[in-house]
Amino acid sequence: MSVKLKVIGYLAHKDTLGEIEAILGRIDNVVLSMHLQGGGWSLKSIGDEELPDIIIHEIDGDREEDLQALEKILLEYPDKVTVYVTYKDGDMETMRRLMKAGVRDTFPQPIQVQELVGSVTKVLSGKRVRLSKAKGGKGGVTSFMSAKGGSGATTIAMNVAEMLAHDFKSKVLLIDLDIQFGDVALLLDLMPGNNVMEALLQPSRVDPVFLKALITTHDSGLDVLASPADLSPMGGISPEGITHLIDAASELYDFVILDVPRVLTSWTMAALRYSDPIMVVGQNNMSTIRDAKLIIDKLAHEGVPTANIEVINNRAMAKEGSVPIEKLKETLGIERMHKATNDFKTSVHSQNQGQPLQDVSKGSHFTKDVHALADYIYVLQNGEHKKKGGLFSGLFSK
Asked: Which CATH number goes with the domain that contains 103?
């Protein structure tokens, strides 16, 4: 899904205009329209026919008509236009006035490249998600992330993806983003010739044709983009590389399942912002609950709506004592909570044999719960169950 982000700059100085052009001109899919104040163009021309995604306004002895025009835009299009201001020696009263009107953020000069790029990339990711939802895309990109090491996110992500491909006859791509320790290929007994780093380090080459050349197909029909499964350095991965990859995948597949490592970096955040829902996988014990809470709060702070986050209570019904589900929901601030029944034997046998759960034990409670998750994600995307009498009604923990 190729999405363009229109950015209008309304700057007081040529140097500032050139600086912003140099910074944002490096981001693909950002369309710049730059204007000098007093040069004939006016903020008053902005309306429904020319509505940008972002306005960057430089404060420098602003005219009252410009301030009123900005306030009008913020009032009429609060959910459509993001306004940033930049300044060198800006009037503090003017800045307070604009912040009160709804300006998103300020950038003191000299502008920090990483801060501006990060802010614009975040808006671009948000636009992608909104457009995906408008096309019925909820559930189209789903992330799985462990609240604590060993929580089972990879096992659940892999089996949900396999069931969507095999049982629901959907086109599914499973992307292993755990660059250094990913084991999706191992769990499916695959020997991939290519891996995800080839896409992430060459974002300008990524398109559906290039992506197809990198995938490995499982017998179930599931396509996999494997991790290198070695200690590859991750310094070259960028948010832009991640969004390019997911864009291309979304054009080809009904469902894109992401196995996201338990690290919060700029590029993992880009993947999570693109996802709805985000499945945080944990176990019902105090240590894991604490870590899940930290992750959920951090995601909210980074602009990920809490409504996009759901929790999977893995190894539910274990014999040891656990926190009541209602108390768990209250603690985490999450309403949608799913269960995956404790079945260590089936899970380990599946992993050791390199086979999906339903090939090992189709009748186990764990397999049925994971199938219910696949049904749930299918319904999010398509609005109906694939088969009458599916397991969706028994999905949520009680």
From this structure: 3.40.50.2300
Q: Say yes or no to pLDDT of 268 above 60.
A: yes
Using CA of residue 62, residue 64, residue 66, residue 67, what is the dihedral sign? positive
Question: Within this chain, do residues 146 and 110 fall inside the same structural domain, yes or no?
Answer: no
Structure-model confidence comparison of residues 396 and 126, the more confident one = 126
Q: How many helices (H) and strands (E) does the chain have?
A: 15, 13
Q: How many domains does the chain have?
A: 2
Q: Within this chain, do residues 119 and 189 fall inside the same structural domain, yes or no?
A: no
**pLDDT for position 188:** 95
Q: What is 256-300 written as a DSSP string?
A: EEEEE-S---HHHHHHHHH-SSEEEEE-SSHHHHHHHHHHHHHHH
- Distance from the Cα of residue 79 to its chain's centroid: 19
Do the beta carbons of residue 141 and residue 132 sit within 8 Å? yes
Whole-number Å distance between alpha carbons of 213 and 222: 15
Within 30-102, strands assigned E span 30-36, 54-59, 82-87
pTM of the model: 0.68
Residue range(s) defining the domain that contains residue 116: 5-124
pLDDT band at 171 (very low <50, low <70, confident <90, very high): very high
The answer to whether residue 164 sits within a structural domain is yes
Of the candidate ranges 113-127, 286-300, 376-390, the one whose mean pLDDT is the lowest:
376-390
Of 70, 94, 124, the position where a domain reaches its end is: 124
Decide the pairing of beta strands 255-260 and 141-146.
parallel
Q: Is 46 a domain residue?
A: yes
Compute the distance between CA of residue 179 and CA of residue 160 in angstroms, rounded to an integer: 20
Query: Rounded to whole angstroms, how far apart are CA atoms 304 and 291?
Result: 17
Read off the DSSP letter of residue 145. Answer: E
Structural domain includes residue 130? no
Q: Identify the top-confidence range among 120-134, 135-149, 300-314.
A: 300-314
Non-local (6+) Cβ contacts of 301 within 8 A are: none
Residues 356 and 269 in one domain: yes
